[in-house]
Write a structure and sequence with these properties.
The complex is a heterodimer. By secondary structure, chain A is an alpha+beta fold. Chain A is built from eight helices and ten strands. In chain A, helix 3 packs across helix 5 (136-151). By secondary structure, chain B is an alpha+beta fold. A three-stranded antiparallel sheet of chain B has the order 3-2-5. In chain B, helix 4 packs antiparallel against helix 6. The chains are: A alpha+beta, B alpha+beta. The interface between A and B is large, with 124 and 133 residues. Strand 10 (270-273) of chain A pairs parallel with strand 9 of chain B.
Chain lengths: 286, 356
């Protein structure tokens, strides 16, 4: 009796445990009965099912990542580029997801990958590198996301986003070398320009300074000449006023002064007539 | 039938509305009344096992009590936040401290380091808009803004962040020219990249919040470093040349001003000299003239003789005596150019010529 009751409890517990199931946040579930889908789209929470007869299949509804390996593409101007992208996707329809890829992520990604890559290849082929690198990343990927979503509708998944992680020039290609070469020559151009500009500015500054110096000096000369002239004029006026009073005596006085200044020097020989006025008394006492 | 119908908007809580199914009414947040619970469970088992109260029943009850005691609370660290799921469904967030909960499998707690700031750094080589290549070291600091989303929004939120960050940085670098990137206008790029990254993370529902994004180092690749260094040197050369010229200029102009001042001062000096001398000369003349006027003859004679004395006394002299008495005065001086002897000889020769 006691054994039976314990066995009954255990059996009831097993059946009880098997008739409820928990779907966690970030999951969805479908219930299968002999491999046939009975109910889908379970939200997080506790749910009932028939014990033993029905099985639960849970799927991750979080956003998942498909991270591609870098691949080589050819741009419109026939340049090789390595493009590395990732795709974000999630399960939105568990029933379709289960029936199309048996709920297998790897299989789902194997379906998404080629679709995206093909779309990307076409997109890259019709664009030049410059477009790809600059504005191209977002508008290009938006179109690819739409395209991928259209192609994967049957899979019960949604492609959330596609991002290009890197667009690089391959290390073994010739393009990279020519890019470096161009960068170098551009820098050289910049360097030359800078040096020439420096020289130009320096010359301008010097020339301006020299001009200023010349102007300053010329102005000073102008003022100086005027000042000298004033001095001369003043002196002339003074002399005229003084000497004008007695021109005859001035002539005599000034001549004597000149003789003194010009003749009273020990170079030269002075020849004197013995009959000159100066020597008058040397000859005659009267 | 599920407790919570899929798709039914309103959430029904079996444990809150049950009205004394397993315990008395009251807030579900309070711990279950243990004694009451144990009594009820024991009575239940007693009924099942025929009132024997056997060892197995007691063991099961003991295990249950231990389980409830151990699993009906959770400790959340100060830097953490706890996400509580009730039967897999999000129920509430637990603040730091000791928090009560229903034991598993009813409620389970996931702890996330919500306040901890994490960091991702990467060094990548990228193409710029003008098809140049730059090397960018960037660093992203982030924390969990929404623990629920962090746990259930994206699988691998941290890897997602690293991927999205690289993509965002590449997008802004790819949309800018190299000169913009290498010059000081990086702040704008950083702000754009940060916005872009945050928008991406929100789109994916990662629950992550970017606190900071930095370009720690942006430089041209090693292969062309020498050319860039030379361009930088050229910039310095330019500045140096300009500074030198400015230094020269700042010397030249003041010097010229100094010269100008000297020229002016000299002229002023000249003016004063001329004027004053003229005044002096005039005064002297006036004074002498006054005396002359008083005694013209004597003064005139005296002035003449004084001048003659000065002139004659300072020079070698030859006196022509052809018309009078023979007087020759030859002073002895050291002047070689015009020795008095030579002069005398010349005079004598001249005199003898004159005789013929």
């Amino acid at each position: 009796m006691r054994f039976f009751s314990i066995a009954l409890i255990v059996i009831l517990m097993v059946i009880g445990a098997n008739s409820v199931f928990i779907v966690s946040e970030g999951q969805t579930a479908i219930v299968l009965q002999f491999g046939r889908i009975v109910q889908t789209d379970y939200k997080p929470g506790i749910h009932l099912k028939l014990p033993v007869l029905q099985q639960v299949q849970r799927f991750d509804t979080r956003v998942l990542t498909l991270d591609s390996a870098p691949e080589r593409y050819l741009t419109a101007e026939k340049k090789d580029v390595n493009i590395d992208f990732f795709v974000k996707w999630r399960v939105v329809d568990a029933e379709k997801y289960y029936t199309s890829v048996a709920g297998d992520e790897t299989r789902a990604q194997q379906r998404i990958g080629p679709i995206v890559k093909e779309g990307l290849r076409t997109a890259v082929n019709t664009r030049i590198l410059r477009e790809l690198v600059s504005g191209g990343r977002t508008d290009l990927t938006e179109a690819l996301v739409t395209e991928a979503n259209r192609a994967t509708t049957g899979l019960g998944i949604q492609v959330v986003d596609l991002r290009i992680k890197r667009i690089d020039l391959p290390e073994d290609g010739t393009v990279l070398g020519s890019v470096y070469e161009r960068m170098r020559s551009e820098r050289l151009k910049v360097a030359n320009k800078l040096r020439a500009e420096g020289s130009e500015t320096a010359k301008t500054i010097r020339a301006d300074a020299e001009r200023q110096a010349i102007v300053v000096k010329a102005e000073a000369y102008r003022d100086a000449q005027k000042t000298r002239g004033e001095g001369d004029a003043k002196a002339s006026e003074t002399y005229a006023a003084a000497y004008g009073k007695n021109p005859e005596f001035y002539a005599f006085y000034r001549s004597l002064e000149s003789y003194r200044d010009s003749l009273a020097k020990p170079n030269g020989v002075l020849m004197l007539d013995s009959k000159s006025e100066f020597l008058h008394y040397l000859q005659e006492s009267k | 039938m599920a407790w919570n119908e899929p798709g039914s908007g309103k959430q029904r809580d079996p444990w809150r509305d049950s009205g004394g199914n397993n315990r008395g009414s009251g807030g579900s947040r309070k711990p279950p009344d243990m004694d009451d619970l144990i009594k009820r469970i024991r009575a239940f088992f007693n009924r099942l096992t025929g009132g024997g109260g056997g060892g197995l029943g007691m063991a099961i009850i003991g295990l249950l009590i231990a389980w409830v005691a151990l699993d009906s609370w959770a400790r959340i660290d100060a830097s953490q936040s706890g996400v509580v799921l009730r039967f897999g469904q999000f129920s509430r967030l637990m603040p730091p401290g000791i928090n009560l909960k229903w034991p598993r499998p009813i409620e389970s707690v996931f702890k996330v380091n919500a306040k901890q700031i994490s960091s991702v750094s990467d060094q990548v080589r990228m193409l710029t808009q003008d098809e140049n290549i730059v090397q960018v070291d960037f660093n992203v600091q982030y924390q969990i803004g929404d623990p629920e989303k962090f746990l259930f929004g994206v699988r691998g939120p941290d890897e997602t962040l690293a991927q999205a960050a690289e993509s965002a940085v590449r997008t802004v670098i790819g949309a800018s020219s190299m000169d913009t990137i290498l010059s000081g206008q990086r702040t704008e790029l950083i702000v754009t990249a940060k916005k872009l990254l945050q928008a991406t993370l929100d789109q994916y529902g990662t629950g992550l919040v970017i606190t900071e994004l930095n370009f720690q180092n942006v430089r041209p690749p090693q292969e062309v470093k020498d050319a860039f260094d030379d361009a930088n040197r050229a910039l310095q050369d330019k500045q140096r040349l300009e500074e030198l010229a400015k230094a020269d200029a700042s010397q030249l102009v003041p010097e010229a001003r100094g010269d100008a001042a000297r020229i002016r001062a000299e002229a002023e000096g000249y003016k004063s000299e001329k004027t004053e001398r003229a005044l002096g000369d005039a005064d002297r003349f006036n004074l002498i003239e006054a005396q002359y006027r008083a005694a013209p003859e004597v003064t005139r004679k005296r002035l003449y003789l004084e001048t003659m004395q000065q002139v004659v006394s300072s020079m070698p002299k030859v006196i022509d005596s052809t018309s009078g008495k023979n007087i020759l005065y030859v002073p002895i001086t050291g002047d070689e150019k015009t020795t008095p002897a030579a002069a005398a000889a010349a005079v004598a020769a001249d005199a003898s010529k004159g005789d013929h």
